[in-house]
Protein: L-lactate dehydrogenase complex protein LldF
Amino acid sequence: MSVQTPGVYTYSPREFHRQAHDALGNPQIRANFRKAMDGLMTKRRDSFGDWDLEALRELGANIRLRALAKLPDLLEQLEANCKANGIRVHWAEDGDQACRIIREICQSHDARSVVKGKSMVSEEMHLNAHLEEVGIEALESDLGEYLVQLNEQTPSHIIMPAIHLNTDEISEILHDKTGIERSRDVDYMTAAARSQLRERFMAADVGVSGVNFAVAETGSLCLVENEGNGRMTTTVPPVHVAVTGIEKVVEHLRDVPPLYSLLTRSATGQHVTTYFNMISSPRKAGEHDGPKEVHLVLVDNGRSNIYQDDELLDTLRCIRCGACMNHCPVYTRVGGHTYGTTYPGPIGSILSPHLMGLEETKDLPTASSLCGACGEVCPVKIPIPDLLVRLRRESVGEGRGNVPGAGVKRTRKEAAAWKGFQWLATHPAIWRSGTAVAGKLKVLAPSRLGVWTEYRSAPKPAGTTLHALVKRHQASKAHEEER
Structure:
């Protein structure tokens, strides 16, 4: 899979390093992201205020773990309760099957236009392109998604799709694509886009949305949003299709408030979003609005493979808040398109290998400093750094090899070098002797170490070890005290 951005080139996870180099050389991209991320990190920190954040994170993690432990049963319960409520349930083994299901629903109603609320799963399965191939127009209604669609791009963030664009760039896009006047007035541009979208809502034959939480106990679909486009998408067109990954199910309705509190604060620093929608049935007799049909498409697309691995299973806890991206020193400097995948940043680096294969995405687990920030801010305590290390091992043919495409081997020289380092590092006496000798011979250290030094300076041994410096400092301090 690759991502096309007009006027630039095709983004691909295989070209992460080249794309990162280009992004780092683009001062506008760096400025846009730095400004946005600084604000989001501050808002997240302030929003938790007097809350016991760690207790709430622990609760959120336990809710997600309990749901995953019962996932097969909960999915059956969800299906049964949705059907009892009048929602038609469909199962899709992969993205292509999910697209066919939605296409067939549209064609059964002679639909020519679809209006979509924000849905990363629909991005994952390339739904828009699939519908357009059969003559069905798919229009994004989330403002950020609408902007990147007008610009023929893909989202660069899972919460804020157009975060890579600044005000002037947005103004130019709206002027070129919709004819409104150039302006730096955000309210004017928002109102103009809303006016254009409102007409499309009224004319759409089918509405497609994502799902934040699917409640097995009640057969309810929860949708979190700020703009009202989700509510319009799910109520104005006569047919509503909700599409979600199978991992989004929760057991009880009471599980939703803690997850909702974590999601909104972690994502945008809000205590609550403007809208929280609960869809439990199509329009009933005597009701004056709402869709006549509601469909739920449950998408696997590699998630069952993740579910069978007791370590990588933690990936499925994700509630798609984007906090790991906002705090990642790599993502905040290169942006989402650099990753060449639907899900960028730390969560994408552990999820994308399952969806696309590790051979295709082998550079993504290394696109991290392993600083641990992503794990510290994850609202459901996914051990992202540990999973990145696991995938790094598998990408060079070590570890369990459960990820599709795992097993890209190191060169013999590289493998031998790391084995030698491992042996030295586990024999302290030899390590100390070796580092002492290396320090005396540092002038002989090579300045080039193959591809490793293409982007780094070759390390040179210090003339004096840290232990020796500490001992020297302590001896000097003791001498001063004696005097």
User: Anything to note?
Assistant: The chain has 22 helices and twelve strands.
